[in-house]
Each structure stands twice: as structure tokens, then as C-alpha cells.
Amino acid sequence: MGDASVNLNQPATLDDMIRDIERLESIYDNWETEQQAVVKAYRKSVDELHAEAFRRLIRSVKSEPAAVGALKGALSDEIVYAVLRRFGLVKPSLQERVEEALDSVRPMLASHGGDVELVAVKPPNQVDVRFVGACDGCPASMLTFTAGVKKAIEAHCPEITKIEQIKGLAAPTNANGGVQFVSPFAQNHEAGWLEAGTLDDIPEGGIVKMTLDGEDILLSKNGSSVTCFQNACAHLNLPLDGGDVADGILTCPHHGFQYELESGECLTAPEVQLQSHAVRIVNGVVEVRLSR
To answer: I want to staple 51 with a disulfide (CB 3.0 to 4.6 A). Which of 87, 105, 185, 249 is the partner?
Structure first.
């Protein structure tokens, strides 16, 4: 076959290549279904050929430690990484999976005028995120963080055990009156909200117990932030309303289990937490939507 030569001319950037592909795809999208089917079959065949070639190349050098090291180094090139990722020959990076997790919650956040951004990935087990827009400084942001962002990251990246919310500077405004804050993960429906008194009915830094629609709940207030939890310890489901509250921590009066009132997380047994209910404030009136 003769000597094979390799063209090492500097290629275009990944962004340039992606733009070229997107321009071609915009033309392809306007074709008839039959024409698209032919292109799809052709593209599939070419992709399978390339993927198999890469598999054989990687397999053939695995026995050479120096070659394996060179391949790992090559993965730092964005184009090499993008192509091998497309063919499923390398696993997605931790940062990529975290961004995928955040993308899964961004549509809900955007519907409330907010967003979340990745601040830092700190291997092996920590991620820092920050709310922006309407979610930054919103009194309902803790529910959004625990029920939305944190849950999504834990699902996509089980090795991440510490997720920190970096506080922003801006606070949301409410020019139109009405609903002052509501977490987008607080059961995003208009129906089912029950009045639970006013902000003034909840002692600052304390708790108040009440029954709504047959459910015993606890309301807590810290400044303009209000949280609501089922009045039941995650330990043995015993009532918590007789417990002491100090520095935002509620201590169960029965067996001493402690909970953060801002998030419902248990400090005694981190694997459990209080059952939370959605809260919103409408013109100074506290409304709760029970989680059932």
C-alpha cells in the first residue's frame, strides 16, 4: 500500500467545526422525510466505521504503557475529547455531568426568572453552585436548592457528597405585588395552596405548630425566609413542636435528634431529613401546599 502520510496542518477550532455542522444540519432539516432517512442511514454507517476504527486503535495500544499515557494526554484536546465522547469511547467528565444536571433544572428556574451556574468542581466529592437572577437571594431559594439543584446533581453524580450553595449579592424584587416569593420546585401549580396565617404569626427564629387539612405542620421564620415541615421527627415520627430552637436548629424533645430549620436536614443522622412542604408569601399571608 506504500507509505501513509499524515496531514498535520492546523485544523479549525471546535467552535468553527460545530458551526459548519449546524449550518449543514439547518439545510438538512428542511428536506423531505425520505431524503432525511437516506442521510441518517449514511451518517450512521460512517459513524459506525469511525467508531470501530477508534476502538481498534485504542485496543491495539493498550498493552503499551507509554501509548496509553499519550492517549490520556490527548484527551485534553477538546476536539479529540468531543469526538471520542460522541462515539461513547470515553466517559463524560465530572464537570460535564454536573452541567447536565444543572441543565435538567434550568427550564424550571427560567420560568421564574432565575438560573443556576456552576462555580467550581472540587474533586473528588464537592461542587459549588450559585443562583443568579430571581433565584439569587430569594427567600424560597433553600427549597429550590435542596429539592431541585442538589437532588439533580446527586442523581447525575453519585460520587458528589458535598454541594455548596455560594450566596450571591442581588435579591429579587416584586414590582407587581401579589406573590412575593415561591420556589419553582414548590409544586408549581396554582391549586392546592392553603392559608396558614400571616408572617407576623410566626415568631422570629422560632416555630409555630398548626394543622392544615388534617396534617400537623411546623412553620419557621428567619427574617423573610419561611419554611414548613411535617411535625414528625424523621427518627420515630414523634412530634417536634415541644423541642428547643436555638441558632436555627430544632432539637427533638424525645430523643434529641437535631434539624436545620432552613433546610430540614438532620444533623444527627445526615441520611434522613424532615418532610418539607411548599411555602409562598402572598401580600404578607403565608400559604402552604402540602406534599402528599
So the answer is: 87
Q: Determine what percent of the chain is predicted with pLDDT higher than 70.
A: 83
Peptide bond before 124: cis, by omega within 30 degrees of 0? yes
The DSSP bridge pattern shows strands 126-133 and 179-182 to be unpaired
Per residue, the 3-state secondary structure of 266-291, as one string, reads ECCCCCCECCEEEEEEECCEEEEECC
pLDDT, tens digit, for every residue of 167-204?
643 333 343 344 445 555 554 445 678 999 988 899 99
**Domains contained in the chain, CATH given:** 14-86 (no CATH), 94-165 (3.30.300.130), 186-289 (2.102.10.10)
182 vs 230: CA distance, rounded Å = 19
- Phi/psi of residue 218, each to 5°? -120, 130
Cα torsion angle, 227, 233, 238, 242, sign: negative
Backbone phi, then psi, for 61, in 5-degree steps? -105, 0
250, β-bridge pairs: 245, 259
Place of cell 455548596: 164
CA pair distance 174, 178, nearest whole angstrom = 8
Distance CA 166, CA 131 (A): 8
The whole-angstrom separation of Cα 12 and Cα 15 is: 8
- Alpha-carbon dihedral sign for residues 266, 270, 275, 280: positive
